[in-house]
Amino acid sequence: MAWFRTLTQFSVTKSSSIRPRNTNPFPLPTLASLAQFSSAPTHETPPVTQYAGLEPTKPGEKPRVVVLGSGWAGCRLMKGLDTSAYDVVCVSPRNHMVFTPLLASTCVGTLEFRSVAEPIGRIQPAISREPGSYFFLSKCTGIDADNHLVQCESVTDGADSLDPWKFKISYDKLVIALGAEASTFGIHGVKEHAIFLREVYHAQEIRRKLLLNLMLSDVPGVSEEEKSRLLHCVVVGGGPTGVEFSGELSDFIMRDVRQRYAHVKNYVHVTLIEANEILSSFDDRLRRYATKQLTKSGVRLVRGIVKDVKAHKLILNDGTEVPYGLLVWSTGVGPSPFVKSLDLPKAPGGRIGVDEWLCVPSVEDIFSIGDCSGFLESTGKPTLPALAQVAERQGKYLANLLNRIGKAGGGRANSAKDIDFGEPFVYKHLGSMATIGRYKALVDLRQSKEAKGLSLAGFPSWFIWRSAYLTRVISWRNRFYVAINWATTFVFGRDISRI
């Protein structure tokens, strides 16, 4: 062991010779360094009169593309951008993309939450490693189109967090992909008492509430009426999201809850409320099949319009009162108040108006894609549905367009006026799919409701549905997670522990 003692002695001697004897290895931060993180100016610090932020790009630097949003459209755009030609800056209040077609499965434990969340840094690695590319956990508060500036405000969480920090970002090209928000149609009490199903934290809240009600209903002394209310799950909205969640929930009740909560199994019920017909965009035969299968699995279908929502019950337009323990709202989407407030051309319905190349006319270097945008009436094109495949195709198209502009020398601000944008964006519908639980699904491959095409239902459709979405999950990591979750659930059932 003589060689080891010699090596140790050499290491100690060398390390001690590198570090000065009186140097503190953990120096305390100075007051000057702390001042920049202060949430409010002190009497020694003058008020901040200018925002911090990213200055305009200089000669020799790559042009900067600023993307607002991290949904299907924005993430597909960032994935396809040529980062050798552009710096990419993403501004969003969430640092991941949600694979929304599988979100309903996480509410009942079929999938884990991380299986449907893809970090932005994995979608576009340049954001993590390139010096001029960034991700900011912030929200956009304003756009100055004349000066090519975006005004932002950091996102904070909790009452004890720092005050939001405001800053500005200069852009060469701006892509607005802010998505949409759930429509409440102005119904009183929806925002206070209902849970939407659009984000991972929505699914987490649904799962928490569902399992909590199951355990509370099993406590001695709870009345029969209260048990029925606690275990009554109401879904408002008969579109694909509402139907898929109802199907997942009924399957969860039939296969897992009835085995592990035998004392209250007869009190668990699911009600789906829709003003018209469920899955209105699907083939008539598929709609009838879905209605039959949902009813067979225990889902009660009610046609009606919600008039008011209270803490433990909702009221329909005919005066019927429906008590509930869990209320999930899934009635479509519309533009957010911020999108409506922007001083930009508007399409029908309040969306940001774009031309055939997804550009916002009358302003330079601004594009809009996804659920927040729509074709202007002057284009003669109809407003596209708020679907993931629409947003994804727009993101892919715009990435190719911006890459072409960059190669032609038009990446800088105000430098793309004379560049030919090429072919306009054309959308072709690839079909619709929806699962209804119990190894059954619907596949409608028609390009429109009036067109003819292939439509399937039953177990083959369920297999196609799972196979298609497994291949559409963005990363191999999440594909592995989803496949393992499905296999684990099939063998052992869903996890019903409340963590």
UniProtKB/TrEMBL annotation:
Pfam families per UniProt = NDH2_C, Pyr_redox_2
List, separated by semicolons, the cofactors it needs.
FAD
- Annotated membrane-spanning segments are none
Q: What is its EC number?
A: 1.6.5.9
Domain of life of the native organism: Eukaryota
Which EC class is the enzyme in?
A: oxidoreductase
Xref: Gene3D superfamilies: 3.50.50.100
Q: For the External alternative NADH-ubiquinone oxidoreductase-like C-terminal domain, which residue ranges apply?
A: 429-495
Tell me the SUPFAM superfamilies matching this sequence.
FAD/NAD(P)-binding domain (SSF51905)
Q: Which reaction does it catalyse?
A: a ubiquinone + NADH + H(+) = a ubiquinol + NAD(+); a quinone + NADH + H(+) = a quinol + NAD(+)
Keyword annotations for this protein, in alphabetical order, are: FAD, Flavoprotein, Membrane, Mitochondrion, Mitochondrion inner membrane, NAD, NADP, Oxidoreductase, Peroxisome, Transit peptide
Q: Does the keyword NAD apply?
A: yes
Is NAD found in the keyword set?
yes
**Compartment(s):** Mitochondrion inner membrane; Peroxisome
Q: Name one GO cellular component term.
A: mitochondrial inner membrane
Q: What is its membrane topology?
A: Peripheral membrane protein
Q: Tell me the protein family, please.
A: Belongs to the NADH dehydrogenase family.
**Function field:** Alternative NADH-ubiquinone oxidoreductase which catalyzes the oxidation of mitochondrial NADH does not translocate protons across the inner mitochondrial membrane.
What's the protein name?
A: NADH:ubiquinone reductase (non-electrogenic)
